[in-house]
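[[Sequence with tokens]]
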Amino acid sequence: MESPSLFSLKNKVAVVTGALGLLGKQHCFALSEAGAAVVVCDLDGNSCNDFAFSLEGDSMGTGVDITSTGSIEDLKANILNKYRKIDILVNNAAINDMFENPSAAAEFSKFENYPLELWNKSLSVNITGTFLCSQILGSQMANQGYGSIINIASTYGIVAPDQSIYRNENGSQSFYKSPAYPVTKGAVISFTRFLAAYWGKKGVRVNCLSPGGVENNQDEYFINNYSRRTPLGRMAAPSDYKGAIVFLASEASLYMTGANLIVDGGWTAW
């Protein structure tokens, strides 16, 4: 069924970073299904091309390092060469800590022991990457006089992590949610407000989407802990954010900027 005109993205060009991730792919599907040509961006260019080929319409895939100014400048040139414009930017790429040795995860993820290297890496990707993509690709929108930037934040950018949900069946802490992810996602929300105010008169809307946790083959104890902590009684399905992405990208949200759209099953309601 064709999308209602208010939500239609026909003839729009949408750029998605971190597009090969669990939610990144769903963002691409949502934008493509609404009619947009999607520029699939992630580190692996070949995989981006393959995934772009599976989407509807005239999409393209390209490898991009969002921490590199030169890489993003090349991306911009390639997009403008093919499409002549950029309508939508979804800043989705981010690092969420993973520890190679599960048995040591609890110890290394403690705030007291958290490695500076991991902290700096998260700052570089989650904050600087969002800044650079917005600066380089968003400037094209400002020059055009229109555009929609959607920054993917998190409930953990709004409220502190509940460390008890990482406690397993025997009561021991298997993992601590580290400080880098909440801090960087909080910064993304503040950056969104800054940019919305800065570019408002240029016709560029800048909003956040703050999703809750997504079920993705986690341990059963974690899924149960998270679900009990959520008013709707479950974790999100990967497809649960598709409607929000299309809403923020389309004319359905035409008078919305500087906002943080929270879609979390009620996690932050109590």
